[in-house]
Specification:
It comes from Lindgomyces ingoldianus. This is Monooxygenase. The structure is a single chain. This protein is of the alpha/beta class. It has 13 helices and 17 strands. The two termini are 28 Å apart. Bound molecules: flavin-adenine dinucleotide (FAD).
Length: 423
């Protein structure tokens, strides 16, 4: 029997987690999928990335992917919190949420490679070195200009990340990033140096992955180990009013990172000092106000992932929400069919918009709960530093949700003032 999207041509821009998920989910439904990626090769850039149980369930629907992810991901039962002076605050465990599904945390490049290979294995046509420079749409389709050539399809899902060019087309103006007032030193490194220091040797335990955080006024430091004690990742979020720059590869400097935690526990200094400088990145956290829309005027082009909604890392949901976008867009295209693409694209936006912005806001509230805390009060009520684990975010099946609400969403779109006859 023909698959529901057979005959549908989908063009996807950007092979991040938004683009790859959209590609896999459209392809699973039988669409012909071309994915254009600007980079010339599949890069290993990045370090730790987190997928909550809401996106973990998406990986688990893709044959072979969970088994490939398990050995490279972090598997600790909890996160130990300390105050900046090393006073133990509390341990947050994840047992209660096991029923919601499985989380996957690991190296972005390694997880990306597994998902990329899966996409290729099911017939997604990934083309590298294809940096899209222009977008256009008509009443019957949409296209891009890339390396001077036009490529067209029934619909475009643009997952071209925080510095999206597609966003300018959709909005009609360039949406400049703002400084969030924070930056993150980040590293992914081997544990050789940690093993040499009695203060840090326990982190390189081959039997147990560790996850610990030290919190202080306007700064937090998180460390995680994985892969049988051979790999370590840490992030240090601190105030930074410097220039806005969105790069995953700006060099960081050990002495500068140390300055951000002056007077803190010796173990925090020891972890930072064990970091080879070439493994340290200085990532300025930028912010964007929510966009008024994610879709083009004729509803043939939709933004997905960071292109539509960049996240602060303290939401721990950026990658998960980008995957939810890809699944939802694919379900909407399946239910609308080739002859009704604009309806699918409008429904995609309507289904996703409110949820995404509510989740985005948790990045600010989670960060402020740690950074703006009164540490005398925290020590009296140490449990207050625990991360809120919201069932409405994590115990959520975006695929089922899209199937459940699609019909009523289309009905409400048709009832909106000014709805076009095609809706
Ligand atoms: C190199 C890199 C490293 C990262 N490292 C981390 C990390 O360590 N931890 C973490 O939490 N998050 C990291 N992120 C961000 C994280 O992957 C995203 O926030 C999240 O997964 C949402 O993904 P996305 O697909 O929307 O965007 P992204 O992951 O940013 O993917 C966008 C893709 O679009 C491509 N692209 C951009 N412009 C064009 C164009 N004009 N034409 C064609 N292709 C284009 C980019 O090359 C990129 O592959 C990283 C992103 C990148 C690109």
């Amino acid at each position: 029997m023909a698959k529901p999207c057979a005959g549908l041509e989908v063009l996807i821009v950007g092979a991040g987690f938004a683009g790859l998920t959209a590609a896999i989910e459209c392809r699973r439904r039988g669409a012909r999928v071309i994915l254009l990626e600007g980079s010339k090769d599949r890069r290993q850039l990045g370090d730790i990335i987190s997928f909550g149980s809401n996106s973990g369930r998406i990986f688990r629907r893709w044959p072979g992917v969970e088994d490939a992810l398990d050995p490279i991901c972090h598997h600790s039962g909890g996160l130990d919190f300390y105050a900046y002076d090393n006073e133990f605050l509390c341990r947050q465990t994840w047992d209660a949420e096991e029923v919601w599904g499985k989380r996957f945390n690991g190296h972005r490049g390694e997880i990306h490679e597994i998902v990329w290979n899966h996409a290729i294995s099911i017939g997604v046509d990934i083309r590298l070195g294809m940096k899209v420079s222009e977008y256009f749409e008509t009443d019957t389709g949409a296209g891009v200009v890339v390396n001077g050539e036009k490529v067209s399809a029934d619909v475009i899902l643009a997952g071209d990340g925080v510095r999206s060019t597609a966003r300018t087309i959709v909005l009609g103006f360039e949406d400049k990033p703002k400084s969030s007032g924070y930056a993150v030193y980040r590293s992914w490194m081997g544990t050789e140096k940690l093993k040499e220091n009695p203060l840090t040797a326990w982190l390189a335990d081959p039997k147990i992955d560790h996850h610990a955080g030290w919190l202080g006024p306007d700064v937090h430091f998180l460390v995680a180990t994985l892969q049988e004690g051979t790999a370590c990742s840490w992030v240090l979020t601190h105030k930074d009013e410097a220039d806005v720059e969105e790069s995953w590869s700006a060099p960081g400097y050990v002495e500068e990172a140390i300055k951000a935690v002056e007077g803190w526990a010796p173990i925090v200094h020891a972890i930072i000092r064990a970091t080879p400088e070439e493994k340290l990145v200085d990532w300025k956290l930028v912010f964007r106000d929510p966009l008024p829309t994610w879709i083009s005027p004729k509803a043939r082009i939709a933004l997905i992932g960071d292109a539509a909604h960049p996240f602060l890392p303290t939401s721990i949901q950026g990658a998960s929400q980008s995957m939810e976008d890809g699944v939802t867009a694919a379900v909407c295209l399946e239910l609308a069919g080739k002859s009704n693409v604009p309806e699918a694209i409008r429904a995609y936006e309507k289904i996703r918009y409110g949820r995404v912005h509510a989740v985005q806001q948790t990045g600010v509230t989670n960060r402020d709960n740690w950074h703006k805390a009164d540490f005398d009060l925290v020590k009296k009520n140490p449990e207050s530093v625990k991360l809120p684990r919201e069932p409405w975010i994590l115990n959520f099946d975006c695929q089922q949700h899209a199937y459940d609400v699609y019909a009523e969403t289309v009905k409400s779109l048709r009832a909106e003032p000014g709805a076009r006859p095609s809706l």
